[in-house]
Amino acid sequence: MKLTAKSIIRRYSCTRSRKDSPGSFYSWAETQVMMQYNQLVQVVEINNSSFLNYPYQLINNPADLKTALEPFMAAKIIGIDCETSGGIDPYRAKIRLVQLAIPHHPVIIIDLAAIDSADLSPLRQLLRGNALKVGHNLKFEWMMLAQAGLKPSRPFFDTYLAYRVLTAGLKCSLSLEAATAQLLNVKLDKKLQTSDWSGELTAAQLQYAAIDAAIVLPLRTNLKRQLKKALLWSTALLEFACLPAVAQMELNGMWLDKQQWQLLRTQLEAQQKTLTRELSSLQIPSPNQQICLLPEFTNSINLRSPKQVLAALQAQGISVSSTNNQALIPLVNEYPIIQALLDYRSLATRISTFAEGLVQHVHPVTGRIHPNWFQIGAKSGRFSCREPNLQNVPRNPATRQCFKPALGYILLKADYSQIELRIMAKVSGDSRMIAAYSKGEDLHKLTASLVLGKSLSEINSSERQLGKIINFGLIYGMGAKKFKNMAQAEHGRVLSLEEASQFRKRFFESYAGIAEFHKHIRKSWLQGIRESRTLGGRRRLWSKDSQPLLNEMLNNPIQGLSADITKLALAKLFAPLNRTGARLICVIHDEILLECPIAEVEPVKALLKRSMVEAGDKFLTPIPCEVEIQMVESWGG
DNA sequence: GCGTACTGCGCC
DNA sequence: AAACGGCGCAGAACGC
Asked: Which of A91, A304, A337, A410 is most enclosed, with most CB atoms within 10 A?
């Protein structure tokens, strides 16, 4: 059906009138309407407010604090910012200033160095109140205030997260400076951000501090309007609701058994030594090679250099064009040295990135690992994690067994079962998938049976594994060639290109709903649409100078909704979890890790399951959502 | 000597 | 033309 501009706008307004709530969701058809609308509208916002000078009041004694906060107690919306001395690590830095802003009122700057913690109760009460707390990257303020015994309560409006929700997929700075320049046409001077906040403060420093708290209020107004206009309000609310859980998780950190880790490291290094000897036959090819019997004098290559490895392999008569796993795995049977090479490289990664790298992030104060969690780290809406990245710790038991709960605690490890396949079933409405899930059937087995033309009961575990590769590859648009390679590399099954494309064809014949879904997305891709939406309404954009890839558009609605679901679960979990002794310590996309006092396992387990299932059901119904929870002594099980 | 792009690989 | 997607990290290679 062809839509006119007018009908798109009419249908769009209809969609917009839905009630906004965190995690409210849209039908597939509605997400299509949003996209078409956004193709029509170009929004230009200009605001010339001047924030060069902003009135403020410095508070440095208890009596003034009480008086100064009185107008804030009745406020519904408060701008918040903190300045810290001694860095930005919540376990080592100290808050120097807390700045609070309400409209038409001087900013209150509270000097925490001058006021005793016991005299801060008016501030504590204010932050615990129901007012909306607005700030830029509130995860930081939340952690710092929590460490000072001033933990702020919901609701929050984080202009940093809001700006990311609005611009997901685009390359742009998310700093307060960039956001105000872009959205308010106000140029902030951030030179003083990293100045010394520990001694006597200058008027310029105080002025700077005041502006940062004040500016987030008009920034919020602007962002809220744009979010609503772009139908991103419920996504933003979901992020805001999730924020305190993320901040708390970062403070909590995760314990690593350093002694056991050191033991593992020693073993890995010993293995690496053995492999190095096996690989000594790989040499730098040279036309007039000298034969030398002592390995330490041979011109042996650097095994971590792709360039040298490639040359050495080719010199041995092995015809390869790349030295990555994909290219080398098919050759392991033919050339034993290739297996040794692959093992060496795997060990090299596990030693440098993990054995050596990870342990450097154990915090000197807490003895735990506190990575930086980025709530919207990925264009799809997924989390990312840095310094260190706990989302890519090797799965092998010896590694993960070093991650343990604190004394008196146990780990609860909760997984969504096959969440992305279930999401595919939901968004495509594929009848065969829906029927299979409602009967509790195994989708990987089903796929294997459909593609191989066998009955379900005939499928063995190896064939099921092939089904898994097919499911996860083909739903995101994998081509026959890559599928062939993958089947060989990860499953050891050698397919001809014809067989591979035959399997691929059968897959899409078997799941006509998925084929239809792909066709639909392909169509909007061909139309040049530069955005993708999840059923939660979350949006990913592509900038004008980058052509969206079809497969990115096929993947985004699935991966993005998975993120929506996990975030809704975290938002639901946060408050009730705080009434227990359990702590959120890690999130790996569809997996949530809690550290739980042994005495509280049963109620916490029930709470965790309920939060996750409710979040899943909200988006997946009628597809059942399954969550598996394990109680374990370590992350390794 | 320093910053950046690339390769390769760990996870979901 | 480009053909599973999403990350972060380490080391080598290269350009300034």
From this structure: A410
